[in-house]
Design brief:
Shape: globular
Radius of gyration: 21 Å
Signal peptide: 1-23
Structural class: alpha/beta
Pfam families: Acyltransferase
Largest sheet: 4 strands, mixed
Distance between the termini: 56 Å
Transmembrane segments: 33-50, 123-141
Pathway: Phospholipid metabolism; CDP-diacylglycerol biosynthesis; CDP-diacylglycerol from sn-glycerol 3-phosphate: step 2/3
Helix content: 40-55%
Strand content: 5-15%
Keywords: Acyltransferase, Membrane, Signal, Transferase, Transmembrane, Transmembrane helix
Number of strands: 8
Strand order of the largest sheet: 1-8-5-2
């Protein structure tokens, strides 16, 4: 018996399910996103190896180009304000709010050249995705071994004190108007991205770290609620500050 009628019927049933079920559409889009991450990572890794021959932060510009194409497939748009703060010729530490697996697309929209990222060590073992992060010069920290994680962060702290590196907060508006894993919502939408004014660290010591963290948090929370206000007014749930 020919398999084509069964395959055609299965495809039609799948298409009908996607039209009728929001949960089905959600999982289909998430599966597509994950598949894209894996397949594009393989392609980008090949390009990075051919272009630079191995692990270097310069590969991140190649990775960023590939990831920025994702938004067209999912109907997402990023409106960025204050990008010039990240392109100034001086070292800085970038901090941003975390919401979902879609954060990576927002990060690549504003990533300046030769930006070294820090990620949890578990991501190194995610196949092609871990490989491309390694080739992009990402530093991996083991959160289970606090001494290793603290060592990496201590190096960052020493750099901030030595080079007078400011902290530059980057805030993404709430995804709740188009993405919600609890309600299985995943549609198109626009993300407001704002690069806040740099927070100076000149003259600070270790004792000033708690106050610095509080300053960053308050600035980012205020910006997050302001940027996320339109979805809230349109009837979406009030966003939780990340």
């Amino acid at each position: 018996m020919e398999p084509w009628p069964w395959l055609t019927a299965a495809l039609l049933l799948l298409l009908l399910l996607l039209q009728l079920s929001r949960a089905a559409r959600f999982y289909a889009k998430i599966s597509l996103y994950c598949a894209l991450c894996f397949s594009v990572s393989i392609l980008a890794a090949a390009v990075c190896l051919l272009r630079h021959g191995g692990r270097t932060v310069d590969n991140m510009s190649i990775i960023s180009w590939f990831v920025r194409t994702f938004k067209y497939l999912f109907g997402l748009r990023f409106s960025v304000k204050g990008r010039e703060e990240l392109w100034k010729d001086r070292p800085c530490v970038i901090v941003s709010n975390h919401q979902s697996i879609l954060d990576m697309m927002g990060l690549m929209e504003v990533l300046p050249p030769r930006c070294v990222q820090i990620a949890k060590r578990e991501l190194l073992f995610t196949g092609p995705v871990g490989l491309i992060m390694y080739l992009g010069g990402v530093f991996f920290i083991n959160r289970q071994r606090s001494s290793t994680a603290m060592s990496v962060m201590a190096d960052v702290g020493e750099l901030m004190l030595r080079e007078n590196v400011p902290v530059v907060p980057v805030v993404y508006s709430s995804f709740s108007s188009f993405y919600n894993s609890r309600t299985k919502l995943f549609t198109s939408g626009t993300i407001q991205v704002e690069v806040l004014d740099p927070i100076p660290t000149s003259g600070l010591t270790v004792d000033d770290v708690p106050a610095l963290i509080d300053t960053c948090h308050r600035a980012m929370r205020t910006a997050f609620l302001r940027l996320s206000k339109p979805p809230q007014e349109n009837g979406a749930p009030e966003p939780a500050a990340q």
